[in-house]
Amino acid sequence: MLGTSVTWGDVTFMMTGAGLTLAITFWAMLGGTLMGMVFGLIRAQSPWYVNHPLGAVLDILRSVPLLIQFILFNSFQSIAGLGMNPFVVGCVVLAAYTSAFCTEIVRGGILAVPATTRKAARSLGMTYWQDMRYVVLPLGTRVMLPSWIGLTLGVMKDTALVYAIGVIELLRSSQIIITRKPHEALIILAIAGLIYFIVSFPVSRLGAHLEKKWREND
Amino acid sequence: MIEIEDVRKSFGSLEVLKGVSMTVETGEVVSVVGGSGSGKSTMLMCINGLEPIDSGRILVDGTEVHAPGTDLNKLRRNIGIVFQQWNAFPHLTVLENTTLALRKVLGKSKDEADAIAVKQLEHVGLGDKLKVYPSKLSGGQQQRMAIARALAMEPKYMLFDEVTSALDPQLVGEVLDTMRMLAKAGMTMIVVTHEMAFAREVSNRVAFFKDGLIHEIGPPAQIFESPERPETAAFLKSVL
Amino acid sequence: MFNINYTFHWNQAFRALPDMLEGALITLQIAVLSMLIGIVVGVLLALAKEARFAPLRWFANTWIEIARNTPALFQVYMIYFGIPAVLQLAASLFGIDFRALGINIFYLDSYWAVLVGIAFNNAGYLAETFRGGLRAVPPTQTRAARSLGFNAVDSFRLIVLPQMFRAVFHPMTNQMVWAILMTSIGIFVGLNTDLTGITQELNARTFRTFEFFALAAAIYYVIAKIVTGGARLIAWRLFRY
After folding, report:
1. Which residues between 130 and 159 in chain C have a beta carbon less than 8 angstroms from any beta carbon of chain A?
2. Which domain holds residue C208?
């Protein structure tokens, strides 16, 4: 292919890796977002003795290399005999890691809605959940969505580290081919880079577009 | 003396100054009134060279502001300007705001600069705020600081660009008092303003600006009581 | 609920603490150097992005987009595998004798690959940070400075720069912490002197994976907290306004 020794088989191998990258991203974002919403709600409106300990725990997830979190949890689950396969371990760890960031996004979104606006909603007779559903959520989403899109891209890039526990995602598959065909390193890396780029560039543009559009409306 | 001769200026396809001419004598206070967006502020920016002009010329004490060889930095030391959005330097205390240009532009020593600044700040009633950062001041206080900062450079001319427009009503008075004081002391001033009573009280002459042109200029009594142009009369009717 | 047939051996891990702390120093060294390079290159990229000469803009854009849209590990690979590949290509195309220059074109030291790769990443992110910082200072500030008689250089140096510094300080601190944590990916290109590398070597000898990596995690956490705490102290001293 292209006058090199990189075969279609190699490219297919990399595409399989890319599929795995996207699958892990999907599950991590799903789990991370759900947990993040719950933690974010708690952090935005609970007393300090709940808020601070929860914040401290989530902060640990953000202050330890993700790579080490993968290794640690993988080792823990094998000690505990949970028998999870590496793919599941990857998704669980990445979801927990994601939740720490998502919590701050959700918290920021809720706190971005002025207290006066919320008081106005409550003074109209809305219940707590009605206020959340019709006032806080639509307003907060404008603040949260661009960051959440950024987080998705970040998580997709972070999936590269599941390599540490033996999942053959896009980058690991590229590295395997490079080890076999070191003189083709440039073209293999270019293909891998292109795949990352094709997925993430449109998403990052969408995020920038939304941010700009919403700023103009304010 | 400031001489403005047939000055034209456009932003893109929008012509904001359409041949403005005006002379301000030394010791004179000239107020410029007129609707928003009529080009008044742009004219002030042209006088100290913050904005280039398309044609015509502006002379300050005989020096042509927009001539290629003019040292604008030197020229601007003679022309103080105060903006609508006071533009305090947020990272410097009130005293530092006032002394920075004295030290770095005029090359004065710290003690010398401090002495001048303290005098000016006391003059505008901020003698007790020297070590305070602008974020802790009210808009009126920040604006008075901006005036003191400009005065500390001992300029020959002071330009005021709608300095009370962004202030809460109760803070307008303190800033106008400061300017009144300055006018009485004989400072040459061009005051772009929406405060008609103030313009009438302190000005030697009032210029009425509309659509990039000075339609009428004369003593306050003439402009406010017997305007010659129907545009002036219509404007005054709308604001008084 | 768990059936754990495992005895934790923490003593073994604690005995290795001095070695691991030595590794932490290398980790810090890579992070600090990569930040310094990243700051200088980041400023240049931010300027290049505003340049009138179009190829300069394209170059800056490409760098920034690759840095931000691909994994840091990919960028380290680019350096680790890519630079030797480029050199080999140059050797075969132009007949340059790299061996005479004392350059091994078949292998790049992993320390340098990690350092340069992370510096590449830092520069891309910091370029955007600096552009944001510049926008954070309103043009009216320059105008006010110029009206007091400051020349263009002094207005920037005395008025714009200090305010810009405040705007970028917090993102720069985050980038620094990020750089520290990122150095751990050196393990994928065989780096064995930094904290993660040393931990991995100890792990390979003893198979006490959990204990060693838990200790490493604690060390990373403490370093990250010292950096953010220190930055908060500096910010408190510096930005009184």
Report:
1. none
2. 19-234
